[in-house]
Amino acid sequence: MEIKKLRLGELLLPSNVLMAPLAGYTCYPFRMLAQELGAGLCFTEMVSANGLKFKDRATRRLLFTTEDEKIRAVQLLGGDPAVMERMAGSGLLEDADIIDINMGCPVPNVFKSGEGSALMLDQKRASAIIRGCRKSGKIITVKCRTGIREDEMFAAEFARMCEASGADMITIHGRSRSMMYDGAPAYREIEQAKAAVGIPVIANGGIFSVEDADKMMERTGADGVMIARYGLEHPFIFSELTKKPCKKTAYEILAGQMDLCCRYYDETFTLSYMKKLSAYMMKKRKGTKRYKERLYQSGSPEELLEVIGLIFGADTGHPGAEC
Ligand SMILES: Cc1cc2nc3c(=O)[nH]c(=O)nc-3n(C[C@H](O)[C@H](O)[C@H](O)COP(=O)(O)O)c2cc1C
């Protein structure tokens, strides 16, 4: 795919390969990693506007960042235009350059509360949320799906509404809510949405290789791609696509994540996140299954790093372990 910088208001994103928001994963350390490897933009995981409103500590922790993160994008989840507007403009989000609005989450509890993908069924409310968040003066982006049901997709119409309401960019996960996370992306829906609006359109869904990214760009004519699960499995994909040099091995990457976690987070978070990320990264590595139990049983960062060394340290010649 053609790699280019992407302009968003006054910001110039270093590449058009974006890392998706992923609940439980896209914490500050992972965002720093993806950016180091070439991702043009990374988002926090979805942050509940109600959680922020009620001063929930765990929700507030999701906003953690430092001055080292140059472009900061927070994804907000919520269905009440007044609450979304208030939180977008609040001091809690003063560090954010970009607010991404979640209009794609398919989870039943979220959907039933009128949040996430439910907003695709209520375009008036979705529009009011975008207009309200815009008052914060920040760059506003939207992440949505192609629709609710597989046989009734309307990404182009929804993209038009987002643009008319003031969104600066839209990311389309090329699957309907009913498809959850499976099935081939609906390229044509994304292509039609791209043709319908003037703002950048980012294509997401089912990108698990360089070839998949090329195919997504060819079929949709989108301005860039967003990678989700494969970014966890093989973070080197950002470097492979953007050609940003990276000499680190998988082990060095995980050791770096551990460092950042220990510096900024507590041990409970560190162990949980590092185990989940390591498990993702070892998915396609042969002969590593036997370490899985030890990985999950590790009770301290030192012990965990030792197991990570056994899993990833010995195979630096593995394709993809270096780039
Ligand atoms: C574990 C997990 C957590 C996710 N969390 C979020 C989230 O917080 N916000 C969001 O907009 N999408 C979220 N998604 C959806 C992804 O951002 C992405 O749209 C989806 O996984 C499709 O891309 P992929 O096929 O490349 O994985 C999540 C997906 C997974 C698997």
Protein model, in words:
The protein is an alpha/beta fold and 323 residues long. It folds into two domains: 237 residues, TIM Barrel (Alpha-Beta Barrel); 66 residues, no CATH class. It has 15 helices and twelve strands. The strands form three sheets. Strands 3-4-5-6-7-10-11-12 form an eight-stranded parallel β-barrel, surrounded by five helices. Strands 1-2 form a two-stranded antiparallel ribbon. The protein has a two-stranded antiparallel sheet with strand order 8-9. A hairpin with a 2-residue loop joins strand 1 and strand 2. Helix 1 runs antiparallel to helix 12 and helix 6 packs parallel to helix 7. The two termini are 18 Å apart. The C terminus is likely disordered. The structure holds flavin mononucleotide. Flavin mononucleotide binds next to strand 4 and helix 10.
Overview in brief:
The chain is an alpha/beta fold.
Strand order of the largest sheet: 3-4-5-6-7-10-11-12
Percent in strands: 15-25%
Kindly, what is the distance between the CA atoms of the first and last residues, rounded to a whole number of angstroms? 18 Å
Number of domains: 2
List the helices and strands and how they pair.
Layout: E1 6-8, E2 11-13, E3 17-19, H1 28-37, E4 41-48, H2 49-53, H3 57-61, E5 73-77, H4 81-88, E6 98-103, H5 108-112, H6 123-134, E7 139-144, E8 147-149, E9 152-153, H7 155-165, E10 169-173, H8 187-196, E11 201-204, H9 210-220, E12 224-227, H10 229-233, H11 237-242, H12 250-264, H13 267-281, H14 292-297, H15 301-312
Parallel strand pairs: 3-4, 3-12, 4-5, 5-6, 6-7, 7-10, 10-11, 11-12
Antiparallel strand pairs: 1-2, 8-9
